[in-house]
Structure formats: C-alpha cells, structure tokens
Amino acid sequence: MRICSLFSGGKDSTYALHWALLKGFQVVCLLTLQPRREDSWMFHRPGVELTKLQAKALDIPLIYTYTSGVKDRELEDLKHGLKKAVKMYDIEGIVTGALLSDYQRMAISMLCEELGLKTFSPLWRKNQEEYMRALVREGFKFIITSINTFGLSSDFIGKIISHSDVENIIALARKYGFNPAFEGGEAETLVLDAPLFKKSLKIEGRVRKTGEYSYIFEITTAELVEKGEAEVKKL
C-alpha cells in the first residue's frame, strides 16, 4: 500500500514511520504542517523546520506546508496537504504517531474517511513507559526541544536521551503526574538519528526559559553528518 507519513520530526511520528516501513508499506512521501502559532491543537511546533533535513536523511520526499494553528481550521489545512499527497504520489493511506489524543485521532480518521484514505496509528494506546524504553533500546536518538510542565527538569533540554534519562523521566512522571511520553504536551522532541536514517543530524542551540515551568531549546544551526555521529552542542 502506498502511504504518506504525517511527520513532525519528533519521536512519535518517526517511530510510526519506522513501524510502517518494517511492516512493508510503501512510504512514498512525508507530510509536515508547520503551525503559524505556538499553541497548535494538532501539530508539533518546536524544531519542525528540521523535517527538511530529516527527510533528506531518510531519503523520502517531503511535502512541507503551513497551518493556521487554529482549532478546526487546522483540519482544512491538513485536508489540503493530503489532497496534494494524493495528487502527487497517489497515496492510499496515512500513518500517524497519535498516542492518546482522542481529538487528534478521531479528527484525522474522519478526514481520511472523507478522502477515501486508510489510517494507521500504530502507537495508539501503547504503554507509555515501555514505549519510551523501546525508543532508546531500538536506536532512536532524540532530544527534548521544549518543556511545559512542573516536575520535568530543564536539565533534560537539548541532550540526547539515554536509557538512564528515560528511567528518570518515568520516575518523575509517576511522582508529579505528567505523561512519561509527553502526549499531553508536557514536552516536545526532535529525532537526530534512527535506524532508517542514512545520515544523522548535528545541531547547536541554547536553552531559554519561557515561563515558570517552561523552557525551549532554540536551535541556531543544524546540518547532516555521517550516520552515527549525531551531536548536540549547547551554546
């Protein structure tokens, strides 16, 4: 089946893409929607511009478009992007990285049904703690690009997350009550390398505090490097 992967560059959409390719789907394109505002209901914002580099690392064509970031109007923007994918690549379905959001999953499913596309959400209702462990175990190198919750230390911002980091995040999630996989918007991530990447990302940036419990990693430079040489430099 020819499918399009909804792709934000974060851990969930990258893992869903990974699943689709391992299951034998023909992923003919990626679709990224960049919100024009920070508080999008549907789409990932921090570092989304780097999907252009990630697409090159994956060697998969990317459709890159914009969305208002306004609830409901975002669905019209997504519909436009999917119609473009149908026209350009003759897709039959899409794969998404939805974990727990009923709003997101149902909205996408209804839209795809209208367009005659099948929807696959391989991460839906997975055990959040085991999923985080699996990411690192299976070779996903990702950083946290923003934090928006009490209890998650800024020390995690801008570093490649290790096995021990995952265990610390899980412990903090249990203590403070946030989602360990950040599905509630507690944090956003960026993948620098994954099993299907043919190149890795090397980035530089700085941590900026944006609120009482909010931080963002502002990426100043990014480039593709040889596979396995993913790196983060904090300025």
What secondary-structure arrangement, pairings included, does this model have?
Blueprint: E1 2-6, H1 11-22, E2 26-35, H2 51-58, E3 62-67, H3 73-89, E4 93-95, H4 102-115, E5 118-120, H5 128-137, E6 141-148, H6 163-176, E7 187-193, E8 200-211, E9 214-225, E10 231-234
Parallel strand pairs: 1-2, 1-4, 2-3, 4-5, 8-10
Antiparallel strand pairs: 6-7, 6-9, 8-9
Helix pairs in contact: 3-4, 5-6
Quick tags:
alpha/beta; Rossmann fold; putative n-type atp pyrophosphatase, domain 2; 2 domains; five-stranded parallel beta sheet; five-stranded mixed beta sheet; 6 helices
Count of alpha/pi helices? 6
Oligomer: single chain
Strand order of the largest sheet: 3-2-1-4-5
The CATH topology assignment of the largest domain is Rossmann fold
Mean pLDDT: 90
Total beta strands? 10
In CATH, the architecture of the largest domain is: 3-Layer(aba) Sandwich
- The CATH class designation of the largest domain is Alpha Beta
Domains, number: 2
CATH superfamily of the largest domain: HUPs
Rounded to an integer in angstroms, the radius of gyration calculated over CA atoms is 17 Å
- The assigned structural class equals alpha/beta
Strand content: 25-35%
User: Which sequence of SSEs, written as H and E, runs from N to C?
Assistant: EHEHEHEHEHEHEEEE
Poorly predicted spans: none
Calculate the terminal CA-CA distance, rounded to whole Å. 44 Å
User: What characterizes the major β-sheet?
Assistant: 5 strands, parallel
Shape: globular
Provide the helix percentage. Answer: 25-40%
